[in-house]
Specification:
Elements: H1 9-20, H2 25-38
């Protein structure tokens, strides 16, 4: 039986890193739902579109 991706050490570390950066799974889900409802792209705390550099 294989391990579910969210149960691996690597996935746990990645989630901990994301949480420490201020965006957790709940925040990400809410942002996606808000973007789907409004049609606006996801933005970070500075107002940049998600993925913009």
């Amino acid at each position: 039986m294989s391990t579910a991706p969210k149960d691996t050490d690597s996935a746990k570390r990645a989630q901990q890193d994301a949480n420490s950066m201020g965006m957790n799974e709940d925040d990400e889900r809410e942002a996606r739902e808000r973007a789907e409802k409004t049609g606006e792209p996801q933005r970070d705390a500075l107002g940049n579109e998600d993925g913009a550099s």
